[in-house]
Predict the structure.
Amino acid sequence: MEPAEISCRVQAYPKPDFLWFYGSSNSPLSSSDHYDITTVTEDNDSYLSTLKLRNVKPQDYGDYYCTVKNSLGSIRPQIRMQPKGAPESPRGLSSQKVGSSYVTLKWESGFDGGLSNIYYVWYRRVARGAGSVEQCAGNRNDVNDWKEYDCMRANPCNVTRLDQHNTYSFKVKAVNTKGQSNYSNEITVTTKVNKILPPEQLTYDPSSRAVVFSVGPTCLGLVAVAEGLGRAGGWQVT
């Protein structure tokens, strides 16, 4: 068994009164061996009432109601206390920043299950459709193979060691000591271009005046620009 606290904060004028209720009972809770209720005044007409359970028992789980009332009206927010468990799924996954070798991801955390969570991003390289200049990504051995990236407790999380100008799918899940969540929504991001490798094995055939060269494997759609040294000594596009 362990203690638990439920808080109810409002901003009101005139000063309100607080009453705590459990479930469908019409009898308000009061400080006792099991409960401790405190109410404090904060700045700017803000008030905080806290219901503390000294030792949580199975029958304590359920809905609590914080009734707040002054001469102008009343409110009765509901607060649910439930056993600790696996976390809820992250949602709203999006990319905050994209570089040539990294993608910074951010998401909205779900309920943590009452425990400290860590997050794992799963990502994979994906091939573009037929006819795309990036179709070469489909020839890589790791295309469509999911990999795991440990974000620990970081949100946003910077996923690194990616390849330039490749398209990746990302999703994230939360994990605590009670279990793990389902995955978040899945998003697709294409990394930026950092550098283009120089051509290789350049040759020139004087009889045909043809320049022949090769380039290393790339997913970029490249355009070749050949320059020759003119008679005047300057380089010109040929």
